[in-house]
Amino acid sequence: MATLDEVLDLVTDELMRAEEIFPNKFNSAHEGFAILREEVDELWEAVKLKRETNDVRDAMQRLARIQTEAIQVAAMAIRLVRDSCLP
Question: For the stretch 14-51, what's the b/e string if a residue is b when 16 or more beta carbons lie within 10 angstroms of its beta carbon?
């Protein structure tokens, strides 16, 4: 299990990566919410994938996808706070 510091490092890295690709701030809280919602939908899709498998590789890939999507959700939530809610 990852430590909180390790998770925060992953979220920070993802936030920085996203800001390099999309350097402009969100135009509004609505836009930020839409992007966050898209990431949550992608996380939900990963969670719904077939859970019962005897293939360790499939299980590990599913878990990795869930973790990746959760990190993206966290990064976009932070960006929404920073871009849309603060002066």
Answer: bbeebeeeeeeebeeeeebeebbeebbebbeebeeeee
